[in-house]
Amino acid sequence: MKFPIVTFELPAWVNGIFSGRNTYFLTPEQKMSLVIHLAQQNSQRGGGPFGAAIFDMDTGQLLAPGVNLVVPTACSVAHAEMIAIMVAQKILGTYDLTSAGSGRYELVTSSEPCAQCFGAIPWAGLSRLTCGAPASAAEDIGFDEGPKPHNWVEELENRKIEVVQDVLLDEARAILNDYKANSRTMY
Amino acid sequence: MKFPIVTFELPAWVNGIFSGRNTYFLTPEQKMSLVIHLAQQNSQRGGGPFGAAIFDMDTGQLLAPGVNLVVPTACSVAHAEMIAIMVAQKILGTYDLTSAGSGRYELVTSSEPCAQCFGAIPWAGLSRLTCGAPASAAEDIGFDEGPKPHNWVEELENRKIEVVQDVLLDEARAILNDYKANSRTMY
Fold it and tell me: Which of A31, A86, A147, B177 has an alpha carbon 20 to 30 Å from A66's alpha carbon atom?
């Protein structure tokens, strides 16, 4: 019996965004603008309206982007945050981002992480989580964010993971509302 | 800029276990025996002491096994439950297991899922979760199970996912204790 190999590959247009471009993002707003752009571009191409990226906190350099690939990969795990984590760890060759490079990496996401992605954050070795739209904004358009603990911010902070919320909130929320207005797939 | 492709492949010994073998597992104990065997074999080969599998609830046929691949893939996401979910969805070609085959699939895991894998279960389209050792058993040997809601069983049952606990509890716990006794990597 031979079980299939599972693969995740960022779409060519994601690679294209960074070709010949400055990959240093210095402020929270610059980082959030990038992941909102990823969410928007992914949505326009029929994907889920979610983008994420991992940055070196000391230099602001992009390590790995992520977009929601649930539909094209037929995999419920493939949220933008999970893709960014998997690609970042592949680049650095470690399951613990605190052990490589600067050891201080930040996950920036266009929408607050769901229960799965929240649960993945402590294992990944991330030192900061920065969110755009709150979970309620994704829920307002019909996405289920799942059963996170009510004190999820405190749970991360207790594990020395800083949490920053509501960066470019209006722009982040607009991507979700636009997705709904265009009646795209909910899953 | 070209980001790397992430791949997950079950080790050859996992494929080997099922070669020419009956892949129907009819009772909870038969299913749990299989995933405990996967956990034990993975542990003996230097992997994490965790095994999982997804079965068709109507026929008992194995759909996809999973073992913890965190160390060999250098990926914190690669818990046994996540591998089983990703392989199962790859086989059926859908991100929602309720939409394919019998539509009734069960995740059986040698240890209660951590916060990440708990959060992944509702998105996967699973209809039942069956656990061997409780989270406290993994925590007793030094694994962190992460911040799940205190009422996690109720949260799954509210989403029509049945939860069965403590199947072959002593055998499931023994794998964890053996891992600790052999001083293998904690992560």
Answer: A147
Q: Which of residues 3-32 of B touch A (CB under 8 A)?
A: 3-10, 14-15, 18-19, 21, 23
Label residue A167 left, alpha or beta by phi (over 0 means left) and psi (-120 to 50 means alpha). beta
SS3 at position A142: coil
What residues of chain A, 46 to 105, have a C-beta less than 8 Å from chain B?
64-65, 70-71, 73-78, 82-83, 85-87, 89-91, 93-96
- pLDDT tens per residue, range B121-166: 999 999 999 999 999 999 999 898 999 999 999 999 999 999 999 9
| pLDDT digits 0-9 by tens, A43-76 | 999 999 999 999 999 999 999 999 999 999 999 9
Q: How confident is the model at residue A184 (pLDDT cuts 50, 70, 90)?
A: low
Residue A138 CA to residue A117 CA, distance in Å, equals: 14
Question: What is the rounded distance in angstroms from the CA atom of residue B18 to the CA atom of residue B37?
Answer: 12
Q: Return contacts of A147-151, CB within 8 angstroms, 24+ apart.
A: A147/A115, A147/B118, A147/B119, A147/B122, A147/B149, A147/B152, A147/B155, A147/B156, A148/A114, A148/A115, A148/A118, A148/B119, A148/B149, A149/B147, A149/B148, A149/B149, A149/B150, A150/B149
The answer to whether residues A135 and A112 touch, using CB atoms and an 8 Å cutoff, is yes
Report pTM.
0.96
Q: Which of B75, B89, B118 is the closest to A76 by Cβ?
A: B89
Closest CA in chain B for residue A18: B1
Task: Look at B3 and A91 and tell me if their CB atoms are within 8 Å.
Answer: yes
Beta carbons of B10 and A3 less than 8 angstroms apart: yes
Domains and CATH numbers, chain B: 23-181 (3.40.140.10)
Rounded-to-integer distance, Cα A54 and Cα A48, Å: 19
Whole-number Å distance between alpha carbons of A37 and A31: 10
DSSP A58: T
Helix (H, G, I), strand (E, B) or coil at A7: strand
Residue B74 vs residues A94, A95, A116, B79, B102: alpha-carbon distances, Å = 5, 4, 19, 11, 34
